[in-house]
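Re: [ENG-882] Designed sequences occasionally contain unexpected residues at chain ends

Forwarding the minimal case from QA. Structure tokens:
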């Protein structure tokens, strides 16, 4: 159900939105946050602890607030997952520092690549290490610059660039299911 339809129904009843109303609106986003957390961490139990559920904090339902809340919930979920994986990322970064750079400035993921990532996330997760998965989410999906990703992860820009190349190449060369 679209947010505008939900708000219309709530307004017809002349009552404030309840937690259940908000859960209905944000249910799809909860599933997306669950996917992000599981993709980044690889452990459903740990991933559940990282999901920042927008349903528990929604106080207003304007479209602008709705967009902001979804963005914030996704960022908070990724940040929580990062806290759990920071040591592993720091451990992996030197490997990418030492790798040969191909000096290609790759763009964030297109809508088509994003759909392929979601569709094949289990296979792609198995092929990428933690650092590559975080870089893929932050650079490829969130469209942060290499410098912003490096600052968030606490590693060098060159390690981020090389990890993104590896992640992007994995998406580009992986066989498509059903193709």
């Amino acid at each position: 159900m679209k947010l505008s339809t939900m708000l219309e129904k709530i307004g017809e009843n002349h009552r404030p939105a309840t937690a259940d109303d908000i859960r209905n609106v944000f249910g799809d986003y909860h599933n997306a946050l669950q996917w992000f957390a599981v993709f980044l961490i690889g452990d459903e139990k740990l991933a559940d602890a990282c999901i920042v559920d927008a349903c528990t904090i929604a106080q207003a339902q304007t479209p602008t607030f709705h967009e902001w809340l979804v963005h914030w919930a996704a960022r908070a979920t990724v940040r929580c997952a990062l806290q759990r994986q920071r040591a592993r990322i720091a451990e992996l970064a030197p490997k990418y520092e030492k790798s040969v750079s191909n000096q290609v400035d790759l763009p964030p993921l297109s809508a088509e690549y994003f759909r392929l990532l979601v569709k094949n996330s289990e296979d792609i997760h198995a092929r990428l290490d933690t650092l590559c998965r975080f870089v893929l989410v932050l650079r490829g999906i969130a469209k942060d610059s290499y410098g912003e990703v490096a600052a968030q992860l606490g590693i060098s820009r060159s390690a981020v660039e090389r990890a993104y190349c590896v992640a992007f190449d994995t998406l580009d060369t992986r066989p498509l299911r059903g193709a």
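QA comment: On inspection the terminal residues look reasonable. DSSP finds nine helices and no strands in the chain. Proposing we downgrade this to a documentation issue.
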